[in-house]
Fold each of these.
Amino acid sequence: MSFLNSYIYYIGAFGLILIGLYIMLVKHNLIKVIVGLGILDTGVNLFLISVGYITKGTAPIFSKPGIDSQQMVDPVPQALVLTAIVIGVAVLALALSLAIRLYQHYRTLDLREIKEQRW
Amino acid sequence: MRKIVSILLLIIVAFGIIRALVEIPFGTLKTEVGRYYIEKGVEETGAVNIVTSVVVNYRAFDTLGEIVVLFIAAIGLGAVLRTGREKKTRDVQPASLILFTGCRFLFPFILILGIYIFIHGHLTPGGGFQGGAIIASGFLLIYLGCKERRISRVASHIAESLGGLVFLGIGLLGLVFGSYFLFNFLPMGTANTLFSAGVIPIIYIAIGFKVGSELAGILDNLIEES
């Protein structure tokens, strides 16, 4: 139980990363691949945040005097993830726009027919 | 065949990640620099929100890069989607009265919430990126509910360019008044008040405008041109 308590966020992030990778590798529908990319992105963000966590930690904000700075979580991964979320949204939007163009050209979203690959 | 190969590949990746994760203990502070930012952040930058002081002061150059990435993604989306061909007019069903009225009623409040969040970025959890995303969600609501309303592209481009130019201009002013790019040249003020932390609120307001107008432009492109 203590193992689960101490590693539950890692397991969750790790699971999301693997699910996203699996979707991107296996699925043929381009929209599903993009959804997999989004899930992978979420997993990486969750992993970075959970690396910076401190047990019973508080947000790194000195909102009122007398807050114990020893209990504050690491601000560096939070700052990284903060921008990574917005960048992730922009990248997803770019990928979706490419999917729209591909659909208008090929009239299908199936990657096997778009790339004409066989494996 | 493809599934088996993928699952084998995933098992290899999973093994590697597990081996790495076991070495990282959960719930302890790992970086020296994080501790330094927490100890010295308030007196060096004047912002009580340490995440903000990292994003906009210590690593402001990084943030400038991230904004450029966002900008390039928005440009790429526009370049891919806008072909200049004649669009087929789709017959659009008007939204119901409840949705229409709800959108028009909620939109100013969503804008105010977004602006509040990016103005108070150095005091409360929040900042330019989050506030900009909230503003863009307000525009998404307008696009879903009131289909005949459109944001003016000129106004969105002006807001976007102004945001970027203000960020760059403040960075260059830091070079003039101080010693390096993005130097915090304004007075710190007393911590935990609205007018404190020097250039941080100004930069975050610029980021808020830029992110908000850029995400709204992305939504506009995706809805209009597809």
Amino acid sequence: MYPYELTQNPYPCSPTPTIIDAQILGGNRHKEAKAAVLSCIEDLRSKMVGIPTDKDFRLITLIQDVGSGKTHLSLHIRGLEELSNNAVISYVDLSQVLPRDMHSLYKAMLEGFTDEYVNDIRRSVVYFLKDKAEQNIKDAKKIFHYGFFDLIKGRNLGKKAEDILQNKIIPNYSDIHSVLKKEFSSTEISVLKLIIEGKLRANAYDVSSLEDIIASVSAVSNLNFKFLKKLTIFQIDEFDSDKESVEFVKAVINAHLPSTVLMLILTPSSYEEIRRKDISVFDRLEKANYKIDLAGSNILEEILDIVFEYIKYYDSKHTFTVDNERDLAAKIKVIYDEFPDFRNIRSMINILYHAMENAGRRDAAIIDEMAIDDTIKSVYPGLRIKGSIMGVPLSDFIKIRRSSNDVQSLESDIRDAVRNLVNYASEMGTVAKLEDTNGKSNGIDVIYNDPTGTKIAVAVVMSKDHVKSFEQISNTIKSSGSADKLVILTNSNRYCGTNETSVVNIDRRKMIDLIYFSSKYKNNEMMLDDDLQRALMLAKSIKLC
Amino acid sequence: MSAEEQIAQRIISSGSLGVKKTDLRKEFAEAEIDTILENMVTHGNVFIDKKGAAYYCWYKDHYFQSLLNSDPKFRLTYEAIKSLEQSFNRTSDGLAKTIESLANSIPNLSKLTIAENEPVVSEKIENDQLISLQFEQFKNEFDIAIANYSNSIGWVELSKIRNELCGMYNMSNEEFYRLVEQLTNKYQDKYELSTGGYEGLTVRGLLHGFVRCI
């Protein structure tokens, strides 16, 4: 059993979306983008009256950075049940098309249609011809090899049509042309023959020129509308500035394919490249009917919404409560805040997939801290905090950060850590032994002599009226003459030091460095030379030695 | 000595009084006096002007003196300009001394210590506010640059903004990208980075060379 009483891990483990993963769509930005695409399709459908013309073409651009969910959104739209009665969709991933010549691009467009579509249109066309035969249209029966003996044996045309669909008989292709020539163009008839043969997607190399290819694609769109009453949508993913692709797409746009929506999916970088390389195509993209972007798709709220959507999709018992949501959001926020590397949905889903597996193995009711810690350790073992002198592992960082929310205890931990650090430096012979300040501290936490014999007093000042505290401590030192120099460690960054007083700002990362060191020191884990070097570097960075 | 040189010598020797053109014609009867004078006037070495009923020739320096002596309006204008020049020079000298003095004081200012019982903290707060102001100023300029350069979908190449702001503030590229990193981290929900481009910030090992406001 997985956390939140889920029977399966809701998160995908694939680094790129699959059709099944794409059934789930979270995030307001993605939902708005989906609504825009559906609106475009609906708009086009509402304008379609009678035979499709070149006015019935729409262009959509979907532009956003890698890993922001463009492909996920495209696949989600492709799999939408509500669209299945209105449109047929061909999805092309240009990153899988090489070489990028017009034939391979055309082939990819045809192969982008689903098997279900190919079967549907084949059935529709065969039954269309059967209807012609039943209406005694000249030569129509010949297509089915329907003759006198069939009549005697009681075989009807419906049976013959099914035989063709099951490839039991081969239709008489020579008669198809004479039956259809009044209603269809020669290109359409060629395409129809391929459909009946079940070879539509194998046709790519039988056309010689770009003009023929465009005519064929146009015919496919026309036939889709005529036989299935559906629009045709071409989704071209990973569209870039490759010359052949750009030229091909330009031709497709210029052709105004009837009853068709062309959806180009690209990154801002590719968009800029196209602007540089082919201003004519760029101009066409600029004039797209819908320019969809997923602005802000990587902000925390969006990521949380998507992450929860996966759980809710599989949470048939509604056991994922508001409290669960709040708890998980807090854990994700720590990762999001501290690590720019994880500020994208793909990385976050990867962490949650592993955390879910980890928690599932332990039968944990929720994704707990251990699940995240273990995930970080096992999935990102080499990951260290950026800017951390002590090389704090990510899992330790998260743990310390979570436990340091209380400012009082944080100050106390820092004070201990500073004392431990000076002690350690003293043990290593870098500074002299520290003096006992207990009972007479007056804000001073540590006093010791540095290698030059200067007496240093250290004060940790946090969560206080800093101005007052600094003045008090400074006055104490001056009046008592107990130290030659004062080092104030503070979380405020509003002050700088003087000759007698060094004010050192210690940000959250440095605090965590100190606490991490302190923990290792107390547990006698400072074993390696590397640890020694790092600890001394930490001491130097906060002007303790 | 050529005729031209002899004529030039004659004009120079006449000083601020100048020499009559007709006298020159008499003295150098064999020379093409008009051509030679025209040539000298073209080069700006000699000036010819009417004094009384006759045309006189002056060497350039002497002509200036002649005007000062003979034309009161010219003399007054010249004196006014001279006075303005002196005043400007005095101001420039004063400014240079102030700058020099300030430059000398900077190291001392940085060494200033907190005097006993003197609340210098407020000065430090001002300092800090200055730093904060600079960051805010950078943010404003950055936002303006995004608005100016963004394409129809809002994205801008960071290099374009870097070009403008580094030129404007005499800032190094490293400093620019340090501030951009700080800015995009501080306002995560305001800015969005995108991969690509030829320069920018590296996130997840990917070069992010585009930015836009969300």
Amino acid sequence: MSRLSSTIDGWRSFDSFAAEGLISALDPRAIILSALCTVIAMTGAGKGEVMVLLPLTAFPLTLMVLADIPALWLVKRILPVLPFALMIGLLNPWLEQGTVTLPGGAEISTGWFTLSSITLRALISAATALLLIASVGLLNISRGLAGLKVPALFITQLQMLFRYFFVIGEEFQRMERAWRLRSGSRRGRMPLKLAAQLLQNLFLRSLARAGRIHNAMLARGFNGEVPAGAPLHWRLRDTLWLAGWAGFALLCRSNLPLLLGTLLTGQPQ
Amino acid sequence: MSHHYLHFNSVSFTYPDGTKALSEVSFEMHHGERIGLIGANGAGKSTLLQLLGGFLVAQSGSIDLGGLKITPSTIAEVRRTLGFVFQDADDQLFMPTVFEDVAFGPANLGVEEPELTPLVLETLKRTGIAHLADRPPYHLSGGQKRAAAIATVLASTPSMLVLDEPANALDPMARRRIIEQLKGFTHSQLIASHDLDLVLDLCHRVVILHEGKVAAVAPPMTVFKDKELLARCGLLPPLRMQQLPPEGPQLKVVEGHHHEAPHHHHTAEK
């Protein structure tokens, strides 16, 4: 099995952690809103404010621990984001004019902070999104979004997109297996020309399969909205969870490391 | 009015590319009856099922489901009445867990908690897969997927089951279980299949389609004994009705081992 094919297999168990851990005891709305607080705090930070961003990693890490998600699982899935983030900020250390003096007296370009900030933002965003789906489950996220009065059209689109990703993945696996079985002595990567031809076929096949799945949904009364399931119940623990993370995001927005430094030294930083 | 009654009345359908798939197809299915829909590839079985599900609309003739004509305006009610089990169970199972997949149909029909969960659990129990409730469908075996696909349909309490190749790609034990399960249901059932042994086991009557037309409607034994009809429609009798060679395989004993002679295949050791 190729690496891409086994990656697709790995993604299929994406929300299998949803039924486990303490996270499943919380109302999905509380988790979605707390993730939103984290994202808002993150986007509000200045372009080179690495120290403001660092504490925000606490949110995805908490989700990971409470949902019993292995760290390696997360690392394997967010690492692909890293090259994109690096590509965006790679030239900043050379392009930015400003310098910062480090405690030892050495001067470095402010671009290094921008690069770190971009990378950190990408990692926090990817980790939060992945862990949100992995720990809460797409169905519960949909219920939560419906409970937050997000338009049904948007929720259905989200679910269909998620499902279509796997339909494409499954069709790719079948085609790739067929190619491997008949590729004779040719090993390793598929020739680019053939890959392009298969890509065209892949979309036609996945579209046909998506049509069959849609028919199966229609046959079972699907009318454009995936049923929300059992009603949600907001409890005291959900209020505490949300209040805690909203407060923490607010603190981070006010530069938590700076506040801690002031508190510890008694001197304005 | 019973929703268990089905009447195809001179139904014709031609695809946009000009392929005539069905021509003047007529037959009836009565309350509690199991009908086998058979025919060679391209005979029109899939088109007929698609018309029944409202995925295609007949250009002429009518389909009557317990007094309800199948038209675009009645399709929602038709789908409440029919339970469709598709050929590929992977196309039918799309929710994260078996439980949620089985709950999908009744929830769409307006069943809410606290009725929904007991209904789903009861259906899972009835189809023998209660222990799989929390499993993701793609982790199931072929037989389990098929049972789950049937459960997703039964949970919506349909009056009639429409099954496309219900024993497709199942091992002999799983196939036998599905046959016994279908025998146990009181629903009227329309079963499209190339598995003629299954049709012989299950069905009260058989509709043979040939080149988009109904070639015969009769009890399975009558149809399967008519070799001329079967040959004309590109079919063979069920395996158990095919004549076996008069002799079993020839066995030679070579240095204490049994070797089966290559030109005999069908019978037990002599």
Amino acid sequence: MNLELKNVTRAYGSFKALDDVTVTIPEGKLTVILGPNGCGKTTLLRHIVDSFSSKMPIAYVPQETFGSLSMTVRDVVSLGRYDRTKFYVRENEEDKRLIKEAMRDMEIDSFSDRNTDTLSSGEKQRVFIARALAQNAPWMLLDEPTANLDVKHADMLMSVLTGLKRSCIVVLHDINLGSLYADNIILMKNGKILSSGAPGEAVNCRLLEEAYDTGFVSAKIGDREVYVSSRQ
Amino acid sequence: MEKKRHNVWYKVIIAVVILIAVMAFSCCLGSVRIPVRDVIGAVTGLTEVSKATDTIVNKVRFPRICMAVLVGGGLSMVGALMQGLFKNPMADPSILGISSGSAFGAALIIVFNINFSFMGFSGLYLGAMGGAVLAWFLVYNIARISGEHDLNSTLLAGIAISSILSALITLLMTLHRESMEQVYLWMLGSFSSSTAQKTVTMAVVVAVIFPVLIFMAPRVDVLKLGREAATGLGVSASRTTGILLCACSVLLAFCVANSGIIGFVGLIIPHCVNFMRVYKMRGKLLMCFLVGAVFTLLCDTLARTVVAPGELAIGALTSLIGAPYFLYLMLRNLLRERRMR
Amino acid sequence: MSFCFGLAAVGGIVRKRVIMKKVIALSLSFVMLLGVLASCSDQKTEETTTAAATTASETMQESRAETAFKHFYEFTDAYGNDVVIESEPQRIVSVSPVMTEIVYALGKGDKLVGRTIYCDYPEEAASLPTVGDIYSPDIEAIVALEPDLVLTSSIFSEESFNQLTELGYNVAIVIDEESFEGIYDVISTVGNIVGAPDEAAALIEDIKAEVDQIVNDKVDCDISVYYCMGCGEYGEYTAGGDTFINDIIELAGAKNAAADAKGWAYSLEALIAADPDYVLISAWAYDEFTTSENYADLKAVKNGNVIIVDSNLFERQGPRIVEGLKLVHELVLEAAAEEAQAA
């Protein structure tokens, strides 16, 4: 089931975070949202969670969490299974398997007993992503999950997501990472959708320049189109 | 994973045993010396004891011991929930503003010498409850002005209302100096006015609220992931926060009305439980109740025996005894982590 | 009724149905609990109120004679509670220094089994075991003494009162009135309670006689006296015009320098303006008063008329209040003599 957004406007006071947005996000595909800071990417994700979470479970990974969690890594990841276990049901074999796999995929099983408060921001982010993986929900929404990850783990994450064959929406800053892995790209600016579609159509130098207000040059490496910003 | 599960219950059982032992031990202590076999006789009713002994053990000491257990446990649970909901290790029950509300109500009753009794509850008790209700009403509704339950607003409203009420209390005290000592003593906290009736009421309140808190506890863990992440898992941040804050407020109101303000317990006991490596909220609430009960009971027993027939202020004792023990736990934990690295 | 009101109010605030259900559940259990407790405690109050109803119309004399059959004595205490004393008390715990003094003065000191740490007069009281302080005494200690009556004055805390009555002990809180005549009621009531009504009447007569003697010994001298209860950093505290200490001063023939004040609080400015002739003060405050700059300009300090007194003679509404009266009267006589000499 595709996610349909029609004429969505979200304003904080007079500032329009989302301005009359209409877009369809296909299911089963990895959608990457690109755009400059403050263009409404996070608001879009939040809107999706608020509107659709009552109809189906959504695994959401926020950009950052504040405050002290004082739980071990494994405890946090196991929260992903809350939907099924809630209060009174014990973890069954499948729960344990999902948790273990999630931790393995994100390479956090080596410190699964550590208190999350003592982790670096990158490790923490991987923990939260693992939690979302463990949730095994049909839709996964990740808000800048690679922000604190190093190159290797960022790449690892994207290939894990692609391998899931689930509906994913990922907000990224790295244009090339997005265009490499995405099935579908949405480019945003100032609360509006500039373009959406397959990477070849939605992203090109002209559109990127319009979105980011800075020059772009592209080069072909292998069979990939790579974009690099250049100041003008 | 199996081992972890067993660990929590293991600790719970040990804590329960310790609690029962401390309760029995406290029954034997007091400002009046009563030999242990008389105490046992009074409790079990098997041997004949004098009416005075029977009254002292069963109607003076026992209700007080139960009250210390209930209030200590209640305060610790509320403290744990505050630290979990606000994701702040420095949070404690007083951020809700309820303690100040209670103190304000009690101060009014003391200063204006309002004497009345309702169904066996003294004016002081009812005044403290009334003040708590007032404070909670203000904080709750201010926090809900934006429509749904906002943690930040609750925190700020709680702090603001606390400050206003504390200032009013200070004003009251300075304008009526002759009552200042009484108001201050009440605020310092004491279990000396525990009667069977109050204790039964408290027990019922705890019996009602405890399951609510335990039931909502896993959701607090989920909320730590963030509002949207929790929504995606089917946990409504607004509703969970609202229900928990209401339940905690009721519990806290009764705690403070019964014993005054005992500040240290709600802040530190959850941390002590953390050091026992109980992290998830459900087990943590249970352990907090038990550990808080044991700790408060020990402090109260000390308070009423060390300078008998006088009494030490329990608020001071909990800090004096609790802080060094907490430091010890913290240092032990830090050293252990250093070794692990 | 009020529950429905409350529920409606809550319903107005709470919109979501699930929370509403939980609130209703909580409120219901709370109300049920209150109902259970109410039915438990109703019994006790019923008994005392019917006893009060039957004897309310009788005078004290009549009730004494008649109730010798039903109960020993019955009166209304400071909180408005009707206290019924079944039989003459044999074991009394006094939680008030005034009560201790009065009981000994009535010759019933042998009935006392306990006192507070502040009960220091008469000397025989020192041999009694202590039960703590006046406001909230140690309940365990009181119970251990197995009293049949707990006697106190109105500074007793409501909490302690509830605790003791719940445990089944008779607690008599004898009313403190803020006037000199109040002392006669107090002595008379205590006399009735402990079974020494004749001694009480005699004591009252003695006191009245002494008071009359002093009052009639009118001297034509106008001195102002300031009774200092607190000074220095803690602020000025004295006996205002509506207190019984004021009455003592006036009966002795002097003027209370703080008569314009109400209650116990005063101010340094007012004190300097009043500039009393004599200052009565406790030993612990004497140094502060005589050495501090604040009071150096008062004529009482300059003339050395700051006098140390035992505050218990003034502040305890017991038989020794006559001593306080005499003390002030002597000052008046002394001042009159000086004036006569100077003239």
